[in-house]
Amino acid sequence: MLAHLAEIRWLPVIAGTLVYAVLGGLYFMVLVPRQYLYVTGREHLPKEEQQVAGAIFILGPLLCSLVMVIADAWLIAALGVTTLGEGAGLGLAVGLGFLLPMTFTIAINPLFPRPILYGLLNAPYFVVANLIACLVLVAIP
After folding, report:
1. What is the sign of the dihedral through the CA atoms of 26, 69, 95 and 7?
2. Annotated domain spans of the chain
3. Helix, strand, coil shares of the chain as percentages rounded to 5?
4. The 3-state secondary structure of 81-109, one letter per residue
5. What value does the CA radius of gyration of the chain take, rounded to a whole number of Å?
């Protein structure tokens, strides 16, 4: 299995990581910013405290996305995934089997006032981004 690490194609990994970044920006900054404040319990904070700033809020998710896409690329190489259908199957299997439950697992702690809503808001992003990233990994030669 480790031998397949050498088969990872880096251009598709970069493209898949950009998928996560672009979708994340659109989803969390354009489509659901108010809902995100609500599920995290920050909706009543002053506007200046609602805003997040700093490199960690950009670089952290980007690096985590890179790791997830590398793992997808590794699985694609190890499993011999070559078609878009197989890529979609892997993307959904990882998204629904790992990322969705992990989102809820992270949310179920005392720091999240609305853990179920947090999971319901965040999980679709991770499932869809992973699905598209896997399609990109298969589609780009």
Report:
1. positive
2. 2-139
3. 80, 0, 20
4. CCCHHHHHHHHHHHHHHHHHHHHHHHHCC
5. 16
Residues 6+ apart with CB under 8 A from 18: none
Distance CA 65, CA 70 (A): 9
Q: Which residue do the tokens 């793992």 mark?
A: 71
Residue with tokens 């199957």: 89
Model pLDDT for residues 68-79, shown as the tens digit of each residue: 999 999 999 999
Angle at which helix 84-94 crosses helix 115-139, to 10 degrees, equals 160
pLDDT in tens, 79-114: 999 999 999 999 999 999 999 999 999 999 999 999
